[in-house]
Write a structure and sequence with these properties.
alpha/beta; 194 residues; Rossmann fold
């Protein structure tokens, strides 16, 4: 079974995936990690980003400056669309390959842009992770990415709303309490599936 996990930045997707891995032996396919691997020096993926955004998104050593690219795309919707257009095909192909190679009976695709990249087509079910608390999201993003509150808020504003995820996904998990609460919500969903 393939489950797609999505949600806005700071919603707690990683926490949900860690629980699925630990409690249900799920194999996690992390779209962000794949994007990082694909953006190594001398890849077609990186060449395409540079072709669209110029060499200012590179470090002095020729690596992708993820922070600089994030600044550009989170301040400009057209740039974000452009980035997605040129990178989705590589990420989707690699996720498809990882799903085919997966050895576990339960595979989880952790992808913030699961729906935008049409990755839900690979999944039997989709789960949205929702924080329901913007201050909590900002705090999580700041701690994780070492960003200012303003930059974290810009990131949230650039993404889909909680309502969007709730309407488009089969299930949703509210992540604004403790781990035990999240585990209970996951258990209820897993009972329905098995």
């Amino acid at each position: 079974m393939v489950i797609g996990i999505t949600g806005a930045s700071g919603s707690g997707k990683t926490t949900v995936c860690e629980i699925l891995e630990k409690n249900y032996q799920a194999q996690i396919i992390d779209a962000d990690k794949i994007a990082k691997q694909l953006s190594q020096n001398n890849t077609q993926y990186l060449a395409e980003i540079v072709a669209h955004f110029g060499k200012e998104v590179l470090t002095k050593t020729g690596e992708l400056n993820r922070k600089k690219l994030a600044e550009i795309i989170y301040q400009n919707a057209a740039s974000r669309i452009k980035l997605n257009h040129c990178t989705f095909k590589y990420i989707v192909k690699e996720i498809e390959n990882e799903v085919k190679r997966a050895g576990a009976p339960l595979v989880v695709i952790d992808a913030p842009l699961l729906l935008e990249a049409n990755l839900e087509k690979m999944c039997q079910i989709t789960i949205a992770v929702i924080a329901q608390n913007i201050d909590l999201q900002i705090d999580r993003i700041q701690k994780r990415d070492k960003l200012t509150a303003k930059a974290a808020l810009n990131r949230i504003k650039a993404q889909q709303t909680d309502k969007f995820y709730q309407q488009k996904c089969d299930y949703h998990i509210i992540n604004n309490k403790d781990i035990t609460n999240i585990e209970e919500q996951i258990k209820k969903i897993m009972k329905k599936l098995y």
